Amino acid sequence: MSQRKYKKLIARSSFVVLLISAIGGGVYLAEQDNNPTAMEKKVVLENPTAAYIEKIYVTYIDEIVHTWNLISNGDTQTIQETKNKIIEWKALLLQQQEEVYEPLNTPVEHQIDTLEKFLALSQENVSVEQRKGLRELSRDFIEGHELVKEGLFLIFNKQEIEYSVAADGTIEYQFKGD
């Protein structure tokens, strides 16, 4: 997928999340006097998955894939920044340890590990073994990208979230009742 497609996916995903938040907030304010306890439960039940997708998948697409592209294309100016981001991304995954999110957490964690290995190997002297290792890690990252999408679809199916994949690979999703 091109970076333009990722930005399109992120924009659509963000729009859906904002729309969900706006609708939920408006309904909450309108019904606040009527039944605050029932509405509070509804907001808590609907928003965790949307927040999770916003945190993990959008971070993956926007930051991890972007960083991979920079590093794999030889951008050495972001090495220390990337090392710091890897720590942040791993911490973010640790915050989302619920079993329902495991289908996406595991492949995203693998992608972060692959990026970390690629970064370390790319710092070594150029040799035949190094180039072979870099090619293997590149192949692993591409395969892992497909596993991330499959993990996202598993979460969509488990949570009964409606989604579609456009011809250009853009994923559009919508929570039930929206």
Short précis:
The chain has 178 residues and is mainly α.
For the structure shown, list the relevant keywords.
178 residues; mainly alpha; 5 helices; elongated
Walk me through what this model shows.
The protein is mainly alpha-helical. It has one domain. It contains five helices and two strands; from the N terminus they run αααααββ. The chain has helices at 3-31, 36-72, 79-95, 102-122, 128-158; strands at 162-165, 171-174. The chain has a two-stranded antiparallel ribbon with strand order 1-2. Helix 1 (3-31) packs antiparallel against helix 2 (36-72) and helix 2 runs antiparallel to helix 3 (79-95). The protein is elongated, with a radius of gyration of 19 Å. The two termini are 28 Å apart. Mean pLDDT is 77; it is low at 15-19 and 22-45.
Low-confidence stretches: 15-19, 22-45
Q: Topology as H/E string?
A: HHHHHEE
Strand order across the largest sheet = 1-2
Structural classification:
mainly alpha
Radius of gyration: 19 Å
Q: How many independent structural domains?
A: 1
What is the count of helical runs?
5
How many E-type strands?
2
Return the average pLDDT rounded to an integer: 77
Main β-sheet description: 2 strands, antiparallel
Helix content: over 70%
Oligomer: single chain
Strand content: under 5%
Distance between the termini: 28 Å
Q: Outline, from the CA principal axes?
A: elongated
